[in-house]
Design brief:
This protein is mostly helical and 101 residues long. It has a single domain, classed as Arc Repressor Mutant, subunit A (Orthogonal Bundle). It contains four helices and two strands, in the order H-E-H-H-E-H. The protein has a two-stranded parallel ribbon. It is globular, with a radius of gyration of 14 Å. The termini are far apart. It binds a DNA duplex (13 and 13 nucleotides) through helix 2, helix 3 and strand 2.
Length: 101
Amino acid sequence: MAKNYMFSSVRFSDFQKKVYRAVLSIPLGQVRSYSWIAKKAGRPKATRAVGTALKNNPFTILIPCHRVIKTDGSLGGYSGGLRKKRELLDLEKKIISSVKI
DNA sequence: GCGGGCCTTCATT
DNA sequence: AATGAAGGCCCGC
């Protein structure tokens, strides 16, 4: 498994890197599904692995894992608590509408 | 709604 | 290093 050493003290697996990149590309106030991320990471069927990678995410501020939900529309899970996830999404929604006006 | 499949990580040995 | 278990899921029946 290839490792990335661009930051000496922080090492992420290749898969993880792709997942994070995909998640970072999600616009403010929008959401994508786990399968979408998996596809973007080159492993369309690795949906569960995506979940693991996101959970492992060290910086929830930098990586908006709350914008990732299940394909059926339900929230899925969140390591910081589903409540927080809902609140964040709601907040982003409000931000969007405020700015749009 | 339930059961099987897929892929990566983590903990043990 | 190898093996087993678990996890923020998805698809078909």
